[in-house]
Amino acid sequence: MPTEFGSGIIVFRKFYRTQLSRCTMTLREFQQLIRNMYHDKDAARGVEGTFMWLTEEIGELATALRSGSPEEQSLEFADVLAWLVTIANVADIDLEQAVAKKYGQGCPGCGQTSCTCPDAEKP
Ligand SMILES: [Zn+2]
Questions:
Q1: For 29-50, what is each residue's pLDDT tens digit?
Q2: Cα of 60 to ligand 1 centre, how many Å?
Q3: Cα 29 → chain centroid
Q4: Fold of the CATH domain 4-92
Q5: How far is the CA of 61 from the centre of ligand 1 (A)?
Q6: How far is the CA of 78 from the centre of ligand 1 (A)?
Q7: What is the pLDDT of residues 58-74, one digit of tens each?
Q8: What's the CA-to-centroid distance between 103 and ligand 1, angstroms?
Q9: Of 57, 60, 98, 104, which has the maximum CB count within 10 A?
Q10: How many angstroms does the Cα of residue 105 sit away from the middle of ligand 1?
Q11: What is the pTM of this model?
């Protein structure tokens, strides 16, 4: 029989695991989540209008990286990814598939999992 304090920890751990599992998702699941939440508005706005929102969010990320707290920075990263995923939805691109195709076998330039491309080249 756990003490009152001990059972509180157990409850907290169960709560934490539940929250964590709700927040853990694949890129495909995130893209679907964004689609479910916003697709009608996103489709009406179109790729070009949505791209403008992405660039605005990239500017906000730059500001957060310069002067924001770690929490502010993390939220701006989330916004940039959300807008990138949004554009993929409007353009009908499966982003997880695209990432796996391009980067799933290593660096697209040299094919290594630790890039050996010359420094002067991208990436
Ligand atoms: Zn490389």
A1: 999 999 999 999 999 999 999 9
A2: 30
A3: 10
A4: Helix Hairpins (1.10.287)
A5: 26
A6: 27
A7: 999 999 999 999 999 99
A8: 10
A9: 57
A10: 11
A11: 0.77
Map out the domains of the chain as residue ranges.
4-92
What is the pLDDT at residue 123? Answer: 67
How far, in Å, is the centroid of ligand 1 from the Cα of 102?
12
Distance 22 CA to ligand 1 centre (A): 35
Greater confidence, 1 or 72?
Answer: 72
pLDDT of residue 120: 86
The percentage of the chain sitting over the pLDDT mark of 70, rounded to a whole number, equals 80
